[in-house]
Write a structure and sequence with these properties.
349 residues; alpha/beta; 9 helices; binds 4'-deoxy-4'-aminopyridoxal-5'-phosphate
Length: 349
């Protein structure tokens, strides 16, 4: 009897702990939502990370950098302000590496997300969502303050932490280059902290001698792409202006010089594409993935057969069943695919 049948020879046998499963996510070629487009569109499925999103990479990189610098010591306590994937990623990593984790969340976070944090053993502190950026109890300010007041406390701070960008420069970008055998011509990514686009985009531009074009996909009302800053429906991506303070600071985790263009994507196109990906490709992704794919497919229609567009899908649609996949939710906002026959890619400017 052979121990390792040939078809499994590239399978990693055992990892030391669950953090060994972060990264090395697959690329899936789209077949149906790309109909008529000459270029290939490949989706980087970040839901394959162990806590379910691209934030596993950023969180692990921030923790490892803090361990190396001595900011996070054995027995330390990790703090972050996050309504979603970063908190969940840190909760997973803390559990695996033996750190307590405290996540400050806005009071409008879904029960599913709070449930995930608690399932990993994190402590959850709830604060009002609509506080101005300079209010001491604002999500990130409160997390930083609690960290400073706690012996052994360390605040991750993904918007200011260079290890967020490093994660994507040293893993996401090189993976895409290796997986496409250097044939990638365009990277399309949404911009939340901007870490993914900045890190992966910078790597791919450098390694290709600036041949790879880096395209930011942004909700049309977000300020990154020049929008008005009014709130939009695609969670965890884009940036809007606070209704009270009216001001907003671009995070240090986003370097606007990396993107060759930023395409504005209407919520209708993002959500229509998110639903189409599940029904027509069997890919259940969050709406920031639908946003990136809608921009990627629109772009692929303008390119040639040698072009290879890679779109980043940061997380799974499972977290959004009661939103983007709920027929009442979408039709009450007037844009289920059932209410119109326009292909999502045709809606992207
Ligand atoms: N989509 C989802 C679902 C996310 O969790 C994030 C990260 N907050 C993003 C998009 C944006 O990624 P980044 O912060 O690297 O720009």
């Amino acid at each position: 009897m052979r121990w390792m049948p040939d078809e499994f020879s590239d399978l990693v046998a055992v990892v030391d702990d669950v953090t060994g499963l972060v990264g090395r996510t697959p690329l899936v070629r789209l077949k149906r939502v790309t109909r008529g487009a000459p270029a290939a569109v490949l989706v980087k499925v970040e839901a394959a990370n162990p806590a379910g999103s691209s934030k596993d990479r950023a969180a692990l990189s921030m923790v490892r950098a803090a361990e190396a610098s001595g900011d996070l010591k054995p027995g330390g306590v990790i703090f972050e302000g996050s309504s979603g994937n970063t908190g969940i990623a840190l909760a997973m990593i803390g559990a695996a590496l033996g750190y307590q984790v405290v996540v400050v969340v806005p009071d409008r976070s879904s029960q599913e997300k709070l449930g995930l944090l608690r399932a990993y053993g994190a402590r959850v502190v709830i604060t009002p969502a609509l506080l101005p950026a300079d209010h001491p109890d604002q999500v990130r300010a409160l997390a930083a303050r609690l960290a400073a007041q706690t012996p052994g406390g360390w605040y991750a701070g993904q918007y200011d932490n260079p290890a967020n960008i490093d994660a994507h420069y040293s893993t996401t970008g090189p993976e895409i280059w290796a997986q496409t055998g250097g044939r990638v011509t365009h990277l399309v990514a949404g911009i939340g902290t901007g870490g993914t686009l900045t890190g992966a985009g910078r790597y791919l531009r450098e390694v290709s001698g600036d041949r790879v074009q880096v395209v930011g996909a942004d909700p049309e009302s977000s300020v990154y792409g020049g929008g008005s800053g009014r709130p939009h429906l695609v969670e965890a991506t884009g940036r809007f202006v606070h209704p009270d303070t009216g001001t907003d600071v671009w995070p240090r985790s986003y370097d606007p010089s990396v993107a060759t263009t930023v395409r504005q994507v209407p919520d209708r196109a993002s959500i229509t594409m998110t639903r189409a990906l599940a029904r027509e490709e069997g890919l259940l992704l969050g709406a920031s993935g639908g946003l990136a794919v809608a921009a990627a497919v629109a772009l692929a229609h303008t390119l040639g057969p040698d072009d290879v567009v890679v779109a980043i899908a940061p997380d799974s649609g499972r977290s959004y069943l009661s939103k983007y996949f709920d027929d009442d939710w979408v039709s009450s906002r007037g844009f289920g695919p059932e209410t119109g026959q326009v292909p999502a890619a045709a809606l992207v400017s």
